[in-house]
Design brief:
The protein is built from three helices and 14 strands. The chain is mainly beta. It has a single domain, classed as monomeric porin ompg (Porin), CATH 2.40.160.40. The strands form two sheets. It has a twelve-stranded antiparallel β-barrel with strand order 1-2-3-4-5-7-8-10-11-12-13-14.
Amino acid sequence: MDPLILTVFLFSTGAADAQQDPIYSLSEDPWILEDEALVGVFRHAEVRLNSRTQLDFTGLSSLPSPDLAVERQVWSTESMAASVSGGLSAPTYGLRLLQGLPLTTDEFIPWTAIVSAGGSVGWRSERLALSAGVVARYGQRFQQTPSGLQDFSYTELAWLDPMLTPIIDRYSVAGLVGVSVTPTERWQIDLDGRVVVPAGPDLNLRLMAWRSLSERQALGFGGVGAREVGEGGALLRAAPRLDWQIAF
């Protein structure tokens, strides 16, 4: 992928919440934030409301595409938990910022509201955490395509398709898995995956290593990859990733 296109994409839109972001937050887990809030550059932001409820909303890189979700932990033991979530997003403005690069200008991007509902289960020990979940999304378009413009369609950017599916096909369903390993007190390694239908199905992966800088800050580096299935066959994408997060 052209580095300029990737840069514009990463800093112009995320159109996603904790359960929907195809770049960072690929998997949803059932655990509630222990701090009051957690914010990153690309990752979504989290705000703890109480011991069983938190808000997940747009991260710093995704502000043009506002998104909000509420996650509620419904069951937990010392090592296992389950949660449900629901959200609302408005990706249109962020996607319109991408027209011309990388989206074409002759396609009409309608104003759309996307609602989501999901659930997850997980198990964790002192050094290892495993999670799995599912998220369903439905998109309601409020505009028809004007005469002379093309209807909005899928692109060759595999990272975008999970966001576009509820706009184009009205719905999407994603299966999510996550593995987190903490080998030392200062390091954490996260591997997350997502399969989305009916787009493809498309597969998105993220591998990140986090290094604690202090009790409240961490620096992450790694990569993201995507496999998109289209009419011409499968397309593979990969890009490096750098991120930073702070807890309050």
